[in-house]
Amino acid sequence: MGIVSISLDEESMEALDGIQKKFGLKGRSEAVRRAINAAKTEAQNIEGLSGTVEGVLIIVKKGHSDPWMNLIQAKHENEIKTQLHSHLKDHKCLEVMVISGEAEKLSSMLKEIHSTGKADYVTFVKS
Questions:
Q1: Which helix H or strand E contains 71, and what residues bound it?
Q2: pLDDT for res 4
């Protein structure tokens, strides 16, 4: 088994410890493996999309003033059929979008969102 050293901010450390506790895991390494497996499953779900896809995209992000999400939404405006934006506590925002379009375009949009590293939560619920 390989060893990887990482640096985490305080919020991520608390989340990691919370994952360990909630799932009754023996250590942080198990919590990291569990998080990796969850991300791996999500990546496989994105790769497995084909044809015309419809569903709901849910994003929680920090900072209302950062325009990164607006740029992605403008690029994919043909796939976004309905959009809801709501302000949450701690200066976070919720974006809920009804999506309909070709799988390749949705996959591209999801990769763009994930690659920014600015979303706290991203999930696509396929209809």
A1: helix 68-75
A2: 86
